[in-house]
């Protein structure tokens, strides 16, 4: 990308949002200190938050081909997955089929991608023109995400080109190593997500009560056109951790998400009425239930609010795979009666976008209660 050589990589978060932070009385927190934050060498850090012992499930017996595990072992593993989805909405997995070395390669190539000049990321058409940074709709600091990301559609990844936009193909430019590793990660995470969705669905199906119209199975409803991979980067943030988030509190609008976070930490989730921090565990992946699985499961599985805290000095990377159905798929339910009316993913997405535009906040599932 010679035209951009030498220009800065960081998105202009501080410049763009300084006025917003200032207008809301938070400007003084920029590059300075405040009373309610802890400080380390003059740098504001996040207030303490208890670390959670998130369930860790060895899913080797579900993910390994030619596995010698018994049916009883697989049933016990499936039960542990379903229990974690009910009690936490979040869990960690190991022996998940995504090689640790591949995840390390992903982080390295992701870092290389985000080190490109800002203008190249924003305007050179890379990765389906999917670059995002900050929160354009934010009207208060609490709505601001101090992060940058590429949203890569799965279909584009598996048929990516190296030239200009080519149909649905994803343009990786000269980043061929990123293209190869992204393809591998997407394929492996996709397989894992499909396996977990199938196991989670089977745990709730009541045999003999299947009704064809409502029996759209989560794993089968999903396809390459709507599933996507999000490559996230959280730049160091000099703003007080109580003033801006790395990623604002949200639930995911999908069936389930497979997430790989690096060693830095910062992910927090709601457990009961409290935020708890998820300690990074090398090689483990995090899985969380999204809104669509909560609806399909009649609220048995929980789509839990989560957020990313900023870090004053250290950048953080993560990669998330979102398992989504095609837009015209009816979400349905595992069993009648359901608290939700049947709706399609397309309808759900439009409503979320409309609500965010109108009120700055996603309403989500309550919109679809009968
Ligand atoms: O970066 C993380 O740890 C969380 C990312 C996330 O929640 C998302 O992309 O929806
Ligand atoms: Fe999320």
From TrEMBL:
Transmembrane domains' residue ranges: none
Pfam families recorded: 2OG-FeII_Oxy, DIOX_N
Cofactor dependency: L-ascorbate
SUPFAM superfamilies on file: Clavaminate synthase-like
Recorded superkingdom: Eukaryota
Keywords from the named record: Iron, Metal-binding, Oxidoreductase
One function term, GO molecular function aspect: oxidoreductase activity
Sequence ranges assigned to domain Fe2OG dioxygenase in this UniProt record: 223-325
Protein family (similarity comment): Belongs to the iron/ascorbate-dependent oxidoreductase family.
The protein, known as: Fe2OG dioxygenase domain-containing protein
Source organism: Paspalum notatum var. saurae
